[in-house]
Amino acid sequence: MFDIQEELKKLPEKPGVYIMKDDTDNIIYIGKAKILKNRVRQYFRSLKNQPPKVAAMVKHIAEFEYIVTDTEMEALILECNLIKLHKPHYNIMLKDDKTYPYIKITVNEDFPRIFVTRQYKKDGAKYIGPITDALAVKETIDTIHKLFPVRKCKKVFPRDLGKERPCLNYHIGQCSAPCDGLISKEEYRKYIDEAILVIEGKHDDIVKRMKIEMEKAAENLEFEKAALIRDKLKSIKSIAEKQKMSNTGLGDCDVIAFARAHNEGIVQVFFIRKGKMTGREHFLLENVDDTDRSQIMTDFMKQFYSGTAFIPKEILVQDDIIPEEKDIIESFLSDIKGSKVSINCPKKGEKHKMVELAGKNAIIVFEQIGDRIKREKQRTVGAVDEIRKALGIDFDINRIEAFDISNTQGFESVGSMVVFEKGKAKKSDYRKFKIKTVIGANDFASMEEVLTRRFSRGLKSDEKGSFSKMPDLIMMDGGKIQVNAGKEILNKFGLNIPICGMIKDDKHRTRGLIYNDEEIYMPLSSEGFLLVTRIQDEVHRFAIEYHRKLREEKALHSVLDDIKGIGEKRRKSLMKHFGSIDKIKEAEVAELIEAEGMTIKSAEAVYAFFRNINTAVVEKR
C-alpha cells in the first residue's frame, strides 16, 4: 500500500522529474522540479488555494514516482521526453504530431546529395528547415537540380565508384557523374556550397557573378551559353520569391501567440528568417482549461522546441513564460542551437505589433476550426461516452481494444487486435497473432489463445510495449461465443474489464452490441453506433489483411521455391521488386535481372519455369 504522506518525507532535495499515477497505475501527470521535495509537497497541501485543474488531479493521485537528475537541465529534457511518450491526461498536450519537410544536404559524404526529408537525425548532414510549404520545398529541390549538376542517386562512394555507367541525369546535364569519376571532390563541393547559399537565400554574390558570365558570353557571341545562364538566373529569382513573403526587419525569430476556449486552444507560430516571414503554422492544444496563460506558453514551448530542428536566436511570446522556468528553458534551447537564445515578451514597438498580429491570427484560426474541433470531439470522445452510457458503465473509457479471428476453412488462422484511444485509432498499438495451438476453424479456442497471449504479456512486470496498457473496454467481433471466450480468459487472469460483442445483421452489417448476455441497440445515426461500426470494420480489415499475407506467403513458397537456383534471398528480392507472383510470371529475362541478387542464369530459370509450368504445380499454387 502506497502511503503518500510517508513517501513525501522521503523526497530528496535534488532536481528531477516526478510522475503521478492513479489507482489503476496509469500516469496522469508528469512534471519537473528544481527541488523535488519542495515541488511535490505543494500538491498535497490545502486544496483551497489550488487551481481547479490541479485540485481535480490531486484527488486522482494514488501514488507517485520520481527520477533524480544531476541538473535541472537534465530534468527538463527528461520531462519533455516522458510527456511525449506517455501523454498524461492532466498535462497540457500539443495534439498535432506534424512533421515538416527539411532540405537535407549530406555534407558528410564525399559527393553530397540534396533531397527532401521529414526525418531529422543527428547524422552529420546539414538540414535546412523545417519548412511549412511542402510544395515550395519540392519545387525548390527540382530547381536546384537543374541549376547545379549534383547527384540524385543513393550510391555509396568510394564503394560504388566506376561500377556502372553514368545514368540519364548525366546525359541531360543534371548530374556531373561522380559515379564514373568525371568530377573531383573539390569541383563537386563548389556546386554543393553554391546550392546551399541559394537555398538559404544568400544568393546575391552568385547572381552578380552569373550576370557577369552572361554578359561575357554574349560579348563573345556565345548566345546559347548566355541563354542558359539567363534561365538559371530566372530560376534563382523564382526560389527567392518562394523564400520571402514579407520584410519584418526582425532577423531570425519565431513569434508565438495563442487563443483558447474551454478545454481547447490554438497556438499560432510565425517563422521569420533573415527578416522575412517564411511561413506560419497553428497547433492544437488540449487540457488548457483553468490553466494560467504563462503555464500554457511554458508547456507549449518545452514540447514544441524539444522536437524541432531549427531554433532561432530570439523567440517572441504573447505572454511571459513562468519566471522561474525562463532561465532554464533559455539555457536548454541555447544548448540545442549552439548559441544564445533569448525569450522575450515585447510590450511596444515592431516586435509587439508582430506578436499582436500572431494573436489576431490565432483567434481567426480558432474561430474557423472551432466547429470542426467540436465535430471531431463528438465523433471521438463523445462517441465513446455514448457507448459507455449504452452499456451502463459508470467510469470513463479511454482505451478500447477489439479482437477478431480470421481463417479460410481453418487454414492459416490468425487473430488481430486494434486499439482506439479517446475514440481514435492508435495504429502503433495494433497487434496481430498467428494461431499456434488450434487446428481447424475453432473461433472459441482461437480467441482464447489470442487473449491469453495478450494478457500474459501485459501482466509481466518487465513489459513496456503496447501490451503493458490495460484496456478499459474489450470488444469482440462476434456474439456470445466470442464474448464467453473472453470472459474465461479475463477470469483466469483475475481481470475485471467490461467485454462486449459486436454483432452483425443478415447482410453482414453492424447491428449492435451484446453485453451481459443482452443485445444493446443504439440509434443507427448516433456517433456511438458509427464508432462501433468503424471499430468492427477496422479489426476485421486488420485480420483479413494478415490472413491474406500469410496465404500469399504460402503460395509464394509453393511456387518460387520449386525453381532451381531461387533461394530465400532471391525469392524475397523478386517479391520486393515486382510485388506479386503474376508480375514475376509476366516478366522478361531483362526485367528479372533488375531485381537485386538476380543473375542471368537465375533469371532464365524463372522465365523458363513460368512458361513451362506443369499442371501439378498449377494445382499446388
What keyword list fits this structure?
621 residues, alpha+beta, GIY-YIG endonuclease, Nucleotidyltransferase, domain 5, 5 domains, 8-stranded mixed sheet, 6-stranded mixed sheet, 20 helices, globular, disordered C terminus
> How many H/I helices?
20
Main sheet overview: 8 strands, mixed
Total domain units: 5
In CATH, the homologous superfamily of the largest domain goes by the name UvrC, RNAse H endonuclease domain
In round numbers, the mean pLDDT is 84
First and last CA, distance: 61 Å
What does this 3D model show about the protein?
- The radius of gyration is 31 Å and the shape is globular.
- It contains 20 helices and 20 strands.
- The chain is of the alpha+beta class and 621 residues long.
- The chain has five domains: 4-91, GIY-YIG endonuclease, CATH 3.40.1440.10; 102-243, no CATH class; 253-368, Nucleotidyltransferase, domain 5; 399-550, Nucleotidyltransferase, domain 5, CATH 3.30.420; 561-620, DNA polymerase, domain 1.
- The strands form four sheets. Strands 13, 14, 15, 16, 17, 18, 19 and 20 form an eight-stranded mixed sheet that branches.
- The chain has helices spanning 4-9, 36-43, 52-60, 72-86, 134-147, 168-171, 185-199, 204-219, 223-243, 293-305, 323-337, 349-391, 443-458, 480-492, 527-560, 568-578, 581-586, 589-593, 600-611, 615-620; strands spanning 16-21, 27-33, 63-68, 93-94, 102-105, 114-117, 126-128, 253-261, 264-273, 276-286, 314-317, 342-344, 399-408, 411-421, 424-425, 431-434, 473-477, 499-504, 510-515, 518-520.
- Helix 5 (134-147) packs antiparallel against helix 9 and helix 13 (443-458) runs parallel beside helix 14 (480-492).
